[in-house]
Amino acid sequence: MRTIAAAGPITFLNPSQIEQRLKGVNLVRLMERAFAAFSRGEAVIPAPGELLFEEPPGEVHIKYGYLKTGDTYVIKIASGFWNNPAHGLSSSDGLLLVFRKDTGELAAVLNDHGRLTDLRTAAAGAVAAKDLAPEQIENVGVLGTGIQAELQAQLLQAVRPCRNIVFWRRNPERGNAYAERMRDRGFLVETAWSPAEAALR
């Protein structure tokens, strides 16, 4: 007969606590291991749920999954509301709920405001670059000026060290702000006049 331990306290983590726990974590390696587990059939990830909104325009995605060898399952709620920046708010938000797989009891609430999703996406890009990009690169081509334009270039350094960015932007003002942020992080930044130029250089 299987013994189930009594539930412990629920852990609540805010964004600063999550960032503290991420220090020293190799996100690219973790993402690589997650892809490998999925390919081996060790992960259960059903199709996501979705809510769409017209006014104000937005969407909410509900995603869930677990590793067969793990002791928890996770439900993630991630939202995007496109008018938020006009009100001084981020367009994306979200949190993760962690449950004990033995009992279904809530174990943790990760109130990350979408940060872990952003890092996961960027880490996946780095894994793809590790397997598909040339060993030696002269520039990193970037399309856009949002959070992925920053994180993809940063996490790429773990697998293809290159601090020369050539980026294309639709909005010159946002482009200038992006270039300044990335230069502050030690990158050399040039503007491309088209997506094709950013890709070819």
UniProtKB/TrEMBL annotation:
Pfam families, alphabetized: OCD_Mu_crystall (PF02423)
UniProt-listed SUPFAM superfamilies: NAD(P)-binding Rossmann-fold domains (SSF51735)
InterPro entries listed in its UniProt record: NAD(P)-bd_dom_sf, ODC_Mu_crystall, ODC_N
Transmembrane segments: none
Highest taxon above the source species: Bacteria
PANTHER family documented for this protein: KETIMINE REDUCTASE MU-CRYSTALLIN
Family classification: Belongs to the ornithine cyclodeaminase/mu-crystallin family.
Name the record gives this protein: Ornithine cyclodeaminase family protein
Organism of derivation: Microvirga terrestris
Taxonomic placement: Bacteria, Pseudomonadati, Pseudomonadota, Alphaproteobacteria, Hyphomicrobiales
